[in-house]
């Protein structure tokens, strides 16, 4: 007899953790020309951060920048966004594994607000892709705190990197400049991103917007 094979694609939906800030009322920003790593500086100085603050640590260059699993993050000085955001949260340990894709969703929404023609997709768990090329990466780490946990969310976003700079990276990569044809003011972008995150993370209704929609990269890109 005739056999008909039907391929079923299963879509799974699950609630992502919402990393809301605990009683944060202000933004505190540290700017550096160079750091070994914004995440490392943030973690080392976490005990000095005010409890009720979103603390932004940004650098024009990193000498020991890293991504997930300790992979090096390469960026020419003064070209891209290299930033770590730190704040108190009540996330539990079991939710930490989904924190990076949660933050990735936020960054995707922010990039959409820049009126760039192509919307990034999330490559699980922590890379943002445009046209199958990496445009941003996220590294989430924690330090203990008596009121919960302090999150340190590092972001490397390729902003004004040229094609030759992207070609020097061992994996396919792109930048906001290359996909839009525009040169961006990094100071304005940093302020925009910081204010966007502050609004979203202090929004009590934010959890109801916490959905993946169609912003996952194709399954063939998953690792």
What is this structure, in a nutshell?
Helix content is 21%, strand content 24%.
How would you characterize the overall build of this protein?
The chain is α+β, with helices and mostly antiparallel strands and 223 residues long. Helices cover 21% and strands 24% of the residues. It has a seven-stranded mixed beta sheet, with helices on both faces. The radius of gyration is 18 Å and the shape is globular. The N terminus and C terminus are likely disordered.
List keywords for this structure.
223 residues, alpha+beta, 7 strands, globular, disordered N terminus, disordered C terminus
What's the layout of helices and strands?
Elements lengths: L25 E7 L5 H7 L8 E7 L21 E9 L9 H14 L8 E3 L3 E4 L2 E13 L2 E10 L5 H5 L8 H5 L5 H16 L22
Parallel strand pairs: 1-2
Antiparallel strand pairs: 2-3, 3-7, 4-5, 5-6, 6-7
Q: In this structure, how is the largest beta sheet organized? A: 7 strands, mixed
Tally of DSSP β-strands: 7
Give the distance, in angstroms, between the N- and C-terminal Cα atoms: 39 Å
Which percent range describes the beta-strand content? 15-25%
Structural class: alpha+beta
The SSE order reads: EHEEHEEEEHHH
The CATH class designation is Alpha Beta
Q: Tell me, briefly, the overall form.
A: globular
Would you tell me the overall average pLDDT? 82
Contiguous low-pLDDT stretches (5 residues minimum) are 1-14, 210-214, 218-223
